[in-house]
Design goal:
Layout (H helix, E strand, L loop, with lengths): L6 E7 L6 H9 L9 E7 L5 H18 L13 E6 L9 H10 L7 E5 L8 H8 L27
Parallel strand pairs: 1-2, 1-4, 2-3
Helix pairs in contact: 1-2
C-alpha cells in the first residue's frame, strides 16, 4: 500500500503540565490507528513548566519500555514519537500551536494535524474517530468539557 505519513498531534501546554503524564499514556493507547504512527509535538508555552514537560516526556519513554511489545498491556503497535518545544513566552499562548506547525511544514511532509490543549481528556478512539470523520480540504473539530471528578488528574477543575 501507499506510504502512510505519521499523524502529527500538537499538544499545547500552558499551565496544566500536571495532567501530561496521563495525557501522554492516553495518546499512546489510541485504538483504531492500524499501522499509522503518531508523532506528538508538545509545544510548551510556559517557561515555568519546562522541567515538568520534560519529566512527563521521559516518564512516557519509560512507560513505553515497560508496557509495549508482545504480551504487554498497550493497545499500540508502535511507540509514539514525542518532540518537545519550549517557547520563549513572547507569543500569545493560543497562537503558538499554529506557528509551530508553520515551521514544521517547511521540513516535514504533513497530511493531517490534530491540535489538543493541556486540559483535554482523550478517549481511546479519539484520533481514529477524527480521522474517520475528516473530509479532504476540510477541517474536523470536536469540542467538549468533561467535568467528571478524577482525583488523580483533577480534570473536573476545568477553569483553573
Amino acid at each position: 500500500g501507499p506510504l502512510k505519513l505519521p499523524l502529527h498531534v500538537v499538544l499545547l501546554v500552558w499551565k496544566r503540565s500536571y495532567l501530561l503524564r496521563h495525557q501522554l499514556i492516553w495518546l499512546q493507547n489510541q485504538t483504531g490507528m492500524g499501522d499509522r504512527h503518531i508523532h506528538l509535538h508538545i509545544v510548551n508555552n510556559n517557561l515555568m513548566e519546562n522541567e515538568a514537560v520534560e519529566d512527563a516526556a521521559d516518564h512516557l519513554k519509560m512507560w513505553q519500555i515497560e508496557n509495549m511489545g508482545p504480551d504487554k498491556s498497550s493497545h499500540s503497535h508502535f511507540p509514539m514519537k514525542v518532540t518537545t518545544t519550549h517557547s520563549t513566552g513572547k507569543m500569545n499562548h493560543n497562537f503558538a500551536r499554529f506557528v509551530h506547525v508553520e515551521k514544521l511544514r517547511h521540513t516535514t511532509p504533513l497530511d493531517h494535524v490534530i491540535f489538543l490543549d493541556d486540559d483535554q481528556y482523550v478517549p481511546e478512539n479519539f484520533l481514529s474517530s477524527l480521522l474517520t470523520d475528516h473530509r479532504p480540504k476540510g477541517m474536523t473539530t470536536w469540542y467538549g468539557k468533561i467535568f467528571q471528578q478524577d482525583d488523580a488528574t483533577e480534570i473536573s477543575n476545568y477553569w483553573d
